[in-house]
Amino acid sequence: MSEREQVGREVMLGLGIDPDAVIASVAPLDDRFGTTIVEYAFGDIVSRPGLDLRTRQLVTLALLAAQGGCGPQLDTHIPATLRAGATRAEIVALFVHLTPYVGIPRSLNALYQAKELFAAADSQEGTP
Amino acid sequence: MSEREQVGREVMLGLGIDPDAVIASVAPLDDRFGTTIVEYAFGDIVSRPGLDLRTRQLVTLALLAAQGGCGPQLDTHIPATLRAGATRAEIVALFVHLTPYVGIPRSLNALYQAKELFAAADSQEGTP
Amino acid sequence: MSEREQVGREVMLGLGIDPDAVIASVAPLDDRFGTTIVEYAFGDIVSRPGLDLRTRQLVTLALLAAQGGCGPQLDTHIPATLRAGATRAEIVALFVHLTPYVGIPRSLNALYQAKELFAAADSQEGTP
Amino acid sequence: MSEREQVGREVMLGLGIDPDAVIASVAPLDDRFGTTIVEYAFGDIVSRPGLDLRTRQLVTLALLAAQGGCGPQLDTHIPATLRAGATRAEIVALFVHLTPYVGIPRSLNALYQAKELFAAADSQEGTP
Amino acid sequence: MSEREQVGREVMLGLGIDPDAVIASVAPLDDRFGTTIVEYAFGDIVSRPGLDLRTRQLVTLALLAAQGGCGPQLDTHIPATLRAGATRAEIVALFVHLTPYVGIPRSLNALYQAKELFAAADSQEGTP
Amino acid sequence: MSEREQVGREVMLGLGIDPDAVIASVAPLDDRFGTTIVEYAFGDIVSRPGLDLRTRQLVTLALLAAQGGCGPQLDTHIPATLRAGATRAEIVALFVHLTPYVGIPRSLNALYQAKELFAAADSQEGTP
């Protein structure tokens, strides 16, 4: 295992993202690309000093929400952003902050997805 | 002047953005829209509690860089983000952070613009 | 209730969009943003003189279709555009008109959604 | 000359767009594509019944402004939209109308380009 | 039937895309647009000499994956690209190739869709 | 120098792109990111087997043209695509092929840039 992969795996585990699940999700198609994601996105980029992880994750959410069509990625990164120390209220404030720059539809769709994720997490927690 | 406009103007002045210049830039076309930008973008949204101004501005830069074609807005918001307390190094780290999510071209173009703005600011300062 | 909210609510009701439903849809996350949408999008912008409501709504549909991933917004705005005085044939002509400028996929996806909405409305009407 | 090309040429001339200039602009690269644009965009699509030309052109402007990076196309289509019967005030209202759906930057950049085009037209007219 | 439509139909049939199904899918809304797609996209453009069909289809997949929200079009064009002579491995390599230019989310979403399509094709084939 | 960087440098040199120039272009801002581009974009991704370099470069051009605002990247990658074995006519055919999928404006802007680059190359060659 490369050093970059080790760094990437640590960053992912700190965010509650399972690197082996990411790798497995593309393994039937390509036996290398999943590892490249771990090495590059998390090992080379997200692990960099210069910006704290909480801010990085808020920016990641903004980029995913703004481009649209990233439902699966928001499912992964909304919980990861909470793990990185952001609060639900900050994630909501973030998605509201998008509107002057990319318009209301992208903002609302991200808020609706956050609402469902938060509700699902609460109902799971509340299960006796 | 509405309370929202007052709030918006204060936020803008804190970021080193001149509200009257924004209003004047569209005034030959529309005598109301510039004020709406002050009231809405800065008075309603950016002024909200729930996310600190420095984080907001970093997110704004990410959204401008990611959508491309926002050179004039980056010219305004890169200095504004420095005013909001972010460092040059954080802005650079932010633009590098874009790459796994929106690709290298948007990231590089924002970095090149930042490089020119920083150099222009330094050379202005260095003028005896 | 602000004057802008009152204006916005009237515009929305004229389009058959329930302002309280919009506000309620984000209320679990944020008690203010729904009202901001009413005030800003409908009170400040859509209510403006200078462009008739039917043209505005056709433009809104074009913008939603062109950016993709706005299914929920098209569900709201296709009926609203009919309320504003456009015909089904005009909405179809509009989505066809997109193709030279943004390509066929965005156009087809909007047409498929319109087809389903029109069929659902017809079958509901036909219910004895 | 195909019937579609004839129809396309008439539509273009009605909008003040020179079909031969469009064809010439790509002729050094491809001797067919310019004609395809005339035939398809203007002959097949813009010439269709079902939506009046003024509304079509306003929608075209909205699509060009919203995707960004279409300066050369706005240079062509802003005057064409005036030719189609829209007023300057309507074009301004249109660009302002973009903001709730695609954000303020795209709206402002289109307004700035319109401002320059209008000023250039006025100064040309004013030349003694 | 125009010559362009004939050419377009042949290209489509060679790709395993049924022109009548495309025409039928929009016929309830517009009795002409489906034919325009056959004539223009396949008759005027894809049929052109200058680039082989396999390369054209790989480029088409890249464009659909990169803009997001084109699930229905990928469902049509992934099998069509296999028909044009590309292998599954090349389609996977293509979607991986997107990442430096448009980011990992668009790449992953296309890969996930390809994975499902390939699995569905295999299970259908494997049915005794 | 990592093995990935070595691989990336070889790929770049084969395409006529100077890795040291890329690294130098961001070095005043960040002493690591330029190397990451060499390692990741060219070492990890473009160097992969599974798709020939000429096809990869044509896809890269399509992605750059389609997203707009990538003038500097097209300046680099149009010559690189010629180096990879594609002809000028294929690049033109590629940009024409974009239109059914992303619209005519993105296609035309890429063609105009190619026209200028080709003319500049020819005039340079023609200099006695």
UniProtKB/TrEMBL annotation, chains A, B, C, D, E, F:
Pfam family, one: CMD
Domain Carboxymuconolactone decarboxylase-like positions: 33-115
Signal peptide from the UniProt entry: none
InterPro entries: 4CMD/NDH-1_regulator, AhpD-like, CMD-like
MF (Gene Ontology): peroxiredoxin activity
Record-linked SUPFAM superfamilies: AhpD-like
Protein name from the UniProt record: 4-carboxymuconolactone decarboxylase
Organism encoding this protein: Actinokineospora terrae
